[in-house]
Each structure stands twice: as structure tokens, then as C-alpha cells.
């Protein structure tokens, strides 16, 4: 197989982010940025010096040029970002204290919902080491769900690693839909990220995390990572060999999209030859640093910040 051009290509939505560290009723200024789970994953990997592509549809509205320019400045490949005559979605996040968070979003009939099979170029998929998508991407529309399944089939047929996160949220879908999305994509999935708090309770009727990981490994999903808030760390199962990695930091400011940052760092490390346990350690540092700031992407760290810590702790 020829050398791959990209470490990672992600498929998903982009949203305009407005954030503040005050309560929304008190805030007179909101900071503009951008987010979206698959986009956060892409940027996290890119800031660790991976080559990364992003597939989405962007709305032809006043935010379009800001988004496209920002992604180019990050170094993302956006050859397969399609402009459509829909609005870009928006979410607003307020974190006035560690224990108090306000979140609202406007994402019905937004531009990324127009994702379809026509946005999935076979040669582009084959040019990457890893493909990533989430249940959020599947939930956008029937056509976006088909696009994810099509991309994963192409990847599986061509030896490209596939990675998936249900990323279940009751604000976006319901447990029945989340189960359906997972069941559709599971046969084509190599790496699976799960949240103990949301995904494991919504998708599986299995109590033990160890039994869930064994069940998934036995299904053919070789690597399973469960993010466990109750145990302050990550369970990593690779072909039924389970290790546990602690959260890098307890100094949490805002956990918005820290799980997505973890995913991007983990996939970056995997694409660059680290084993699952090593990749989880790198990703834990990345997610921990990201959670020390406000918002999804602004606080994602860069290569030197993460690897200086990883190398010092690996000694």
C-alpha cells in the first residue's frame, strides 16, 4: 500500500461558537470561535503536527469566510468542504464556575445536514491512515448518516483504520437512535470511543465496563476507550488487554469538547506508531490541557505543550 497523505480525515459538522466566562444573563460580550465534535477532533490532531483533512458542508452566510479562513490557517485540508445555501449552526456556552455551565445550540436544518454520499471521495478516503466520524454526524440527516456509512465501508475495504464516537447527547438525539447509529457503523469500526456517563448507559444494557469492552472486542472492534468520570480516567482495551490511564489534571475549567480533543490526540498518536496505552497517555495530557480553558477549540494545546509533558513523565 502506498504512503498515506493524511494521518486523519474527519467527517462532521462545524458550528459557530459563542463563549463567555460569565452567566449568560450577565454577559454583554460573547467571544466568537468555532466548534463541532469532528472539527475539534481534527484540530486537536492537527495541532500535534498531524496531517488532517476535514469533510463537511459550510453555509453560504456571513460566517462562511471566517470558517474557511480559520480552517486553512489551522492547516486543515478542506478540499472536500462543500458550500451550500444553508445557515451555519451556532452554539453558546457559558462557564461562570467549575460547577456551573450553560449550553444552548441552534442546529436544525443547518449546512452540515446536507452532507451526503457525494461528499465522500473514494480516493480521498484511501489517502488517509484513519477515518473518524461520530453519532452527531449521523444524527444530522439521513443523507449524512449514509455518508458516514459509505466512508467507513470504503475505508474498511481499503485497509484504512476507522474510528467512531457515539457522542450521545439527549439534546441531539434519543437512546433508540443512538443505538441504531451505533449498530449501523459497528461492523466497520476499528477504534471506538465511549463516555461512561452518556454512551455506555444509553447504548448498552451491560453494567460492567469490563464486560462492555470484552463484548465490543469480541464483536471485532479491536480498540475500545471508555472515558470514566466516576473513576477519573480512561479504560483502554486493545484486543481484550485492558489498561487504565488517569486523567492528566483535576484543574478543570470547562470540559466542553475535551473528549473530542482526547479523540484527536489519540488518533494522532495512533497514526504515528504509538500503541493504545501510549496514545491514551498523550491524549489524556491533551484533553487535560484543553479543559483548563473556555470553549471547544481555543484552548486545544499544541505539540510542544503536550509532548514536553509526555516525555518528562515517560522518563
Short overview:
With 315 residues, this protein is of the alpha/beta class.
How many strands, which pairing sense, and closed or not: the largest β-sheet?
Answer: 9 strands, mixed
DSSP strand content: 25-35%
Number of domains: 1
Helix percent reads 25-40%
Number of DSSP strands?
Answer: 13
From the helix content, strand content and strand pairing, which structural class follows? alpha/beta
The number of helical segments is: 11
Annotated CATH architecture: 3-Layer(aba) Sandwich
What is the CATH superfamily?
Ribokinase
Please report the distance between the alpha carbons of the first and last residues.
35 Å
Principal-axis shape equals globular
Structural notes for this entry:
Helices cover 37% and strands 25% of the residues. It has 315 residues and is of the alpha/beta class. The protein has a single domain, classed as Ribokinase (UDP-N-acetylmuramoyl-L-alanine:D-glutamate ligase). Strand 9 (161-165), helix 6 (175-185) and strand 10 (191-195) form a beta-alpha-beta unit. Helix 1 (37-46) crosses helix 9 (258-271). The longest helix has 16 residues, at 142-157.
Amino acid at each position: 500500500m502506498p504512503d498515506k497523505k493524511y494521518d486523519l480525515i474527519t467527517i462532521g459538522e462545524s458550528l459557530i461558537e459563542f463563549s463567555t466566562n460569565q452567566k449568560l444573563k450577565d454577559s454583554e460580550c460573547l467571544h466568537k470561535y468555532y466548534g463541532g465534535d469532528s472539527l475539534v477532533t481534527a484540530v486537536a490532531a492537527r495541532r500535534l503536527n498531524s496531517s488532517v483533512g476535514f469533510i463537511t458542508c459550510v453555509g453560504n452566510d456571513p460566517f462562511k469566510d471566517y470558517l474557511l479562513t480559520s480552517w486553512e490557517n489551522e492547516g486543515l485540508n478542506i478540499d472536500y468542504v462543500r458550500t451550500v445555501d444553508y445557515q451555519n449552526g451556532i452554539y453558546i456556552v457559558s462557564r461562570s464556575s467549575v460547577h456551573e455551565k450553560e449550553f444552548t445550540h441552534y442546529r436544525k436544518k443547518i449546512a452540515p445536514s446536507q452532507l451526503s454520499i457525494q461528499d465522500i471521495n473514494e480516493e480521498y478516503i484511501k489517502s488517509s491512515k484513519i477515518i473518524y466520524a461520530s453519532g452527531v454526524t449521523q444524527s444530522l440527516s439521513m443523507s449524512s448518516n449514509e455518508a458516514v456509512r459509505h466512508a467507513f465501508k470504503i475505508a474498511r475495504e481499503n485497509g484504512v483504520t476507522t474510528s467512531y464516537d457515539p457522542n450521545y447527547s439527549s439534546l441531539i438525539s434519543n437512546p433508540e437512535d443512538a443505538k441504531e447509529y451505533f449498530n449501523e457503523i459497528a461492523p466497520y469500526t476499528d477504534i471506538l470511543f465511549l463516555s461512561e456517563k452518556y454512551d455506555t448507559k444509553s447504548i448498552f444494557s451491560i453494567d460492567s465496563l469490563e464486560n462492555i469492552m470484552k463484548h465490543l472486542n469480541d464483536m471485532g472492534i479491536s480498540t475500545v476507550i471508555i472515558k470514566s468520570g466516576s473513576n477519573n480516567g480512561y479504560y483502554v482495551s486493545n484486543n481484550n488487554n485492558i489498561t487504565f490511564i488517569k486523567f492528566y489534571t483535576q484543574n478543570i475549567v470547562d470540559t466542553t469538547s475535551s473528549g473530542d480533543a482526547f479523540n484527536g490526540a489519540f488518533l494522532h498518536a495512533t497514526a504515528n506508531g504509538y500503541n493504545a496505552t501510549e496514545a491514551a497517555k498523550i491524549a489524556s495530557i491533551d484533553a487535560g490541557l484543553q479543559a483548563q480553558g473556555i470553549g471547544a477549540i481555543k484552548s486545544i494545546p499544541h505539540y510542544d505543550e503536550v509532548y514536553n509533558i509526555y516525555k518528562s513523565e515517560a522518563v
